[in-house]
Write a structure and sequence with these properties.
Shape: globular
CATH architecture: Beta Barrel
Helix content: under 10%
Structural class: mainly beta
CATH superfamily: AttH-like domain
Radius of gyration: 20 Å
Strand content: over 45%
Largest sheet: 13 strands, antiparallel
Number of helices: 1
Oligomer: single chain
């Protein structure tokens, strides 16, 4: 369990990260902080590789999000999630102290094992200082203590020694980056400033080991890596989002999402499909429809999540079903929220054609990002 002191420090840092910067017209008082100059996301920027695979410290929020399915030897398939967040809080960056929280690093890790019937998860939070946590620029290397994702050529090394399990995985990139939106500029709402720079690495080939209860399992599988950075991600009218990333059995990939209004309607939607031979199609908001077909209510939090879906993206129609219903992730000790993130299958006319992950936010409480 997270200790009381660790929880108290985490909640203090979260308050600093999530509190909006002050841009009011009043003259700043003697104790007021100068507004942090976050870099904007604007159309027309051309993503560069490998440079943009590293950190972008001028922006407010950034994440590296790995999800996938593992095939442990001698066991049924399981899902896994490893996420690192970097947030730049509104602090007085003129303070020369090495302990100034210029950037906060947060990490989540989880396993979706149908034999357990419930998500197994862990989390960490730390300020980027003294080499104990950080996110490098130029190439992917992000870490908190002994948790890390590090790029080594065309391979991403994932090392997560969590409390109830340990992951040591190598993710190989057989395909080029999959740029989301307009060349990597991904709109998240009606206003152009509600946007991120966003690319994906689907169809990652996984090899490595999973350790549980002192027993080591060799694993293989397929994964998906999302990398996004932004300074104004969500429209204030949005309560949360629904997102899927699907690796198809034929080598293709689909990302689709919708931003939900607080009234539960769709504020914005989008997505993109890439075929196995590299042909790419981006979907306008009207071309994406995500319709819930079944919900599950958490016995712990009372939150109700739509865990099964019908998804339409252009002329592609899918049925999305969860590996198991209880994939709720309680991250109040790190980012202050509870969300559903889980392994799912994709099918057409009852035939399974792919596997991936579904993320549901803002069902416990409206998101603030």
């Amino acid at each position: 369990m997270v200790s009381f002191n660790a929880r108290r420090r985490a909640l203090g840092w979260i308050s600093a990260v999530l509190a909006p910067p002050s841009y009011g017209a009043e003259a700043p008082g003697p104790r007021a902080l100068p507004p942090t100059p976050y870099a904007p996301v604007v159309p027309g920027y051309r993503l560069r590789f490998p440079e943009d695979e590293g950190s972008h410290p001028a922006f407010r929020t950034e994440w590296w999000y790995v999800t996938g399915w593992l095939e442990p030897r001698g066991r049924p398939p399981i899902g896994f999630q490893v996420t690192f967040f970097r947030s730049r809080p509104n602090v007085d960056e003129r303070n020369p102290s090495a302990f100034t929280a210029r950037h906060i690093l947060i990490a989540h890790a989880a396993l979706s094992d149908a034999r357990r019937g419930r998500l197994v998860h862990d989390q960490k939070v730390a300020r980027a200082s003294l080499g104990l946590a950080g996110a490098d620029e130029g190439r992917t290397r992000v870490w908190i203590d002994d948790w890390s994702i590090a790029q080594e050529g065309a391979v991403y090394a994932v090392r997560i020694p969590a409390r109830e399990f340990s992951l040591a995985l190598s993710l190989t990139t057989p395909q080029p980056p999959f740029l989301q939106g307009d060349g990597g500029y991904s709109r998240k709402g009606p206003r152009p400033e509600s946007a991120s720079y966003y690319y994906s690495l689907p169809q990652l080939q996984v090899a490595g080991a999973l350790t549980e209860n002192a027993k080591r399992f060799e694993v293989s599988g397929t994964a998906w890596l999302d990398h996004e950075w932004s300074s104004s991600y969500m429209d204030e009218r949005a309560a949360g989002w629904d997102w899927i990333g699907i690796n198809f059995d034929d080598g293709g990939a689909l990302m689709a999402f919708r931003m939900r209004e607080r009234s539960a309607g769709t504020l914005w939607a989008g997505g993109a499909y890439r075929s196995a031979d590299g042909r790419r199609r981006t979907f306008a908001p009207a071309e994406v429809d995500m319709a819930p077909v079944r919900s599950w209510r958490s016995p712990r939090t009372g939150a109700s999540y739509p865990v099964a879906w019908r998804v339409r993206a252009g002329d592609l129609e899918l049925t999305i079903d969860p590996l198991m219903d209880d994939q709720e992730n309680d991250t109040r000790a790190s980012v202050g929220t509870i969300y559903w993130e889980g392994a799912v299958t994709a099918s057409q006319s009852g035939k399974a054609i792919g596997r991936g992950y579904l993320e549901l936010t803002g069902y416990w409480r409206a998101m603030r990002l």
